[in-house]
Amino acid sequence: MSDIRETGLAFMMMHGLGNDFVVLDARAGDFALSPALVAGIADRHRGIGFDQLAVIGVGDGDAHLTFYNADGSTSAACGNATRCIARHIMQETGKTAVTLTTARGALRAVDAGGGLTSVNMGQPQLDWQDIPLAKAMDTLEMPIEGTPTATGMGNPHCTFFVEDACAVSLDQFGPRYENHPLYPERTNVQVASVIGPDHLRMRVWERGVGVTLASGSSSCAVAVAAARRGLTGQRVRITLDGGTLDVDWREDGVWMTGETAHVASGHLTPAFLAGFQ
């Protein structure tokens, strides 16, 4: 394991619709990341700043991905980061399809053309114990004010369907439900409005992060929840604060398609890293 306090640490900055990531490549040699270091890198004033941090490692497929939230906690899934890294590896290798392993399982990603990248986020988890929830209940309409829908996409989600998603104050609404006792592992919180039979407007509060401009796994969860409730079909366009994602719930899983961007590459200095080791 390399000592990053001596060598420093290369990183890439990427985003999917403004949902931004610091990406570290550990394929050439592993390194240790403490929760304090992850949170330090996430600091937008004294570090780099990100919604999630992703580490690329060696896996059974083209790579293995590990995800961290801005507070230093881990997450099993991050759809937009998966798409960004899939695009990076496809450009690196010349492939048009890759398989990335995660705590969520093996995820297939493909070049969708026109600069777009699609990833299959797998089948949603709909049973209470798989999401997980604290006790048995109907996940379609939970016993919470507003009767939200619970969905698992490798991480837990709580979706509220409201008349106007833009009118909700997420800074107050999100924390209230992220830490709801029915979600023992906390939850991502979404508010969504139906624009049409194949169009949703969604905003998101991510657990361990806060308000983000977009979220891939949240978009998948909202699409699944809307289809289960009969509000839309299984293929929808989701408009987020940062842009638009297309989500298609198929027999083989929930496919998500959208733009990605590799903004910059840089180097975390040994002096910065030493403060967190």
Q: Notable features of this structure?
A:
single chain, 277 residues, alpha+beta, Diaminopimelate Epimerase, Chain A, domain 1, 2 domains, 17-stranded mixed sheet, globular
Topology:
Blueprint: H1 4-7, E1 9-16, E2 19-25, H2 35-42, E3 52-57, E4 63-69, E5 74-75, H3 79-93, E6 97-102, E7 105-113, E8 116-120, E9 149-152, E10 156-161, H4 170-178, E11 188-196, E12 199-206, E13 210-212, H5 216-228, E14 235-240, E15 243-250, E16 253-259, E17 261-268, H6 270-274
Parallel strand pairs: 2-3, 4-6, 10-11, 12-14
Antiparallel strand pairs: 1-2, 1-17, 3-4, 4-5, 6-7, 7-8, 8-16, 9-10, 11-12, 12-13, 14-15, 15-16
Verbal overview:
- The chain has 277 residues and is an alpha+beta fold.
- The chain has 2 domains: 132 residues, Diaminopimelate Epimerase, Chain A, domain 1 (Roll), CATH 3.10.310.10; 103 residues, Diaminopimelate Epimerase, Chain A, domain 1 (Roll), CATH 3.10.310.
- The chain has a 17-stranded mixed β-sheet that branches.
- Helix 4 links the parallel strand 10 and strand 11.
- The two termini are 14 Å apart.
- The mean pLDDT is 96.
